[in-house]
Amino acid sequence: MPADLNLRLGLPGSDQTDVDAAKSNKRASPEKAEDTASNGVPAAKSADDHETAPAPKAQIVGWPPVKSYRKSTAAAVKKAEAESGMYVKVSMDGAPYLRKIDIKLYNGYSHLLTALEDMFKLSIGEYSEREGYKGSEYAPAYEDKDGDLMLVGDVPWEMFMSSCKRLRIMRGADARGLGCAQ
Amino acid sequence: MAYSFPEEVLEHVFSFLSSPRDRNAVSLVCKSWYEIERWCRHRIFVGNCYAVSPEIVIRRFPELRAVEMKGKPHFADFNLVPEGWGAYAYPWIAAMAEAYPFLEEIKLKRMVVTDESLELISKSYKNFKSLVLTSCEGFTTDGLASIAANCRHLKELDLRESEVEDLSGHWLSHFPDSCTSLVSLNMSCLGSEVSFSALERLVARSPNLRTLRLNRAVPLEKLANLVRHAPQLVELGTGAYSAEIRSDTFSSLADAFSACKQLKALSGFWDVVPSYLPAVYSACSGITSLNLSYAAIPSSDLVKLISQCQNLQRLWVLDYIEDSGLEALAASCKDLQELRVFPSDPFGAEPNVSLTEQGLVSVSEGCPKLESVLYFCRQMSNAALIAIARSRPNFIRFRLCIIEPQAADYLTLEPLDAGFGAIVENCKELRRLSMSGLLTDRVFKYIGTHAKKLEMLSIAFAGDSDLGLHHVLSGCDSLRKLEIRDCPFGDKALLANAAKLETMRSLWMSSCSVSFGACKLLAQKMPRLNVEVIDERGPPDSRLESCSVERVYVYRTVASRQRLDIPDFVWTLDEDSSMRYS
């Protein structure tokens, strides 16, 4: 894994280390009575984020100040999102129309690539970190959250799933510039 | 001194005064005005149910037809007030049942209402018209059934945000066929399914129905049928807004909405399938209020909807709207007056959406009428707050919640004192302020100096010392409600400003540094304040007097300081500063 690829969901441009430094000013949260009044919403759900997010924080009673019926909405929404598909458009250079696939249905890159090969009747070839999909006629690329065109396969599968907005099967020649390590 | 106006004339003049404050002012002019006014007052607002007793109200105002009352302190919304603290509606309902047989309207907020209370209401007031229960609890759908069955002239039943024990949806079927008077029905907080045919028939026979807020259990496929029976609707809350994508469902829904020429407000939208949103587009140009705060809609779909609503005045939305969506909002909705952005994932450690301070900056810049904001985000800077304050000096409500407690300015790592200082300095009409982030005593100095019209202030995890609290209590001339949690404020400021507390409705302090000794002293000094020590660790005098109490709630009252319904974790202090408890 290249060192400059930090596994975190920071906001673009924000430096995580600065935020941590600010936190050192924080007063320790006072001991709270067991929150029998709390609505039982589980502690910070970063456990289901696949990145190496910080451990879930201990919940402070009544913070953030969100009314209980809203908390359960948020949890339900998360659940609904988790259950719904992750459909992304797939375009292929030269093809007249796009397809759509649910990337949640795949358990990894090879599974996905095999499916794409089947769907578009082409061959994609082997991925290598150094050389991408060298030797194949087509290379799979995707548009991430920031709108950048990235080569499929560089980041861990879970990270890809959450950041992939759109897939694009490019002709091998055009894809050659898409190495990840700069 | 003889007055030239006969009583009837004065009464007639007073009838033009609707605001409780005006009426209160009138009643203080002289004894005869007090007498005339009290006999012709028909509506009353009691901001704290423990500030006065039913007997006192009934004695003073014999002709009431509408009562509005609030119970628990605001922080009860966030589980800071232990269960069983109080705010029971029953004693009021029972007393008023005797005294006001012609009572028509009851509006309660944050009170405990039982099924017995509801049954009593339904049987005691022959002309009962309107029941509004906001953030109430303690009743079940059986209580609703009594209201439905017995209130022959019911116009309004609004359960907004109440916690109802949902035994079954059968309650709705208790509305008799002869009931055609409904104007407003809000059942959005209920869980279980009501009989759809009963609901449909009820809507169909209510020609005056203006507000209909359904609960999540009403499926989208049935919504068109309901709406078709009520094209005169002004406010509609949908149920779940998801269904299999079918063109007949869609077109039927779109047709139904296009028949609603008076629609001004939309809400509901649980479980949204974005493809169905265009069904409401025909109504969008008339929409002034949109509550999408339960809808997980991606920013792009939100923007498509919002940009159709050129006349939007109020928007409640989840942070899925992101900065980009708020920028679009600022560009299309120039009439926007109120914005609330709620967190979709309040307990997540990391941001799940791209919503930052920038969104609020855009809206403040772009919407000249924006005056009320509630904004949850994960980062803020003084620069942004200063820009916001300068763009929008007309704020009257500004509530900012930065999710991480004591978060500093993310650019400079400084406290956010300067930013909030700019808000209070520029927004001279500010009436309500909630702050968050890293804040020192300095921000309270700014508040005390500038926030002269501030009526309600909420503080959490802020300040360095008693000086902070002192600035607020000594400087904020219009302060009515102050709620504080987890701040290092203690005895000195409280005792030095004891007299101020009598000019306010209430003060709440939890997890601060107020000692039991100070509470006793305060109660001694100020006999017209009720000083409630709310502590679940057992009697305060089993600990040192210098020990901090868990919570203290101070409010002015003309009722007895020993409320009869006090639970065993609340201690209120008597004049002789002995501790009294149940």
From TrEMBL, chain A:
Chief subcellular location: nucleus
Parts forming coiled coils: none
Family: Belongs to the Aux/IAA family.
Entry keyword annotation includes Transport: no
Annotated region described as Disordered, given as residue ranges: 1-59
Basic and acidic residues bias: start-end ranges: 20-35
Name of the protein: Auxin-responsive protein
SUPFAM superfamilies referenced in this protein's UniProt entry, alphabetically: CAD & PB1 domains
Cellular component GO terms held in the UniProt record: nucleus
Top-level lineage group: Eukaryota
Keywords: Auxin signaling pathway, Nucleus, Repressor, Transcription, Transcription regulation
Automatic annotation (TrEMBL), chain B:
Record-linked CDD domains: F-box_AtTIR1-like
An annotated Gene Ontology molecular function: auxin binding
Domain F-box: 5-46
Subcellular location: Nucleus
InterPro entries for the chain: COI1_F-box (IPR041567), F-box-like_dom_sf (IPR036047), F-box_dom (IPR001810), Leu-rich_rpt_Cys-con_subtyp (IPR006553), LRR_dom_sf (IPR032675), Transp_inhibit (IPR041101)
Keywords: Auxin signaling pathway, Developmental protein, Nucleus, Ubl conjugation pathway
Keyword Aminoacyl-tRNA synthetase: no
Gene3D superfamilies: 1.20.1280.50, Ribonuclease Inhibitor (3.80.10.10)
GO cellular component assignments: nucleus
One GO BP annotation of this record: pollen maturation
Pathway(s) this gene product operates in, as recorded in its UniProt entry: Protein modification; protein ubiquitination
UniProt entry tagged with the keyword Signal: no
Protein name: GPI-anchored mannoprotein
Naturally occurring in which organism (per UniProt): Salvia divinorum
High-level lineage: Eukaryota, Viridiplantae, Streptophyta, Embryophyta, Tracheophyta
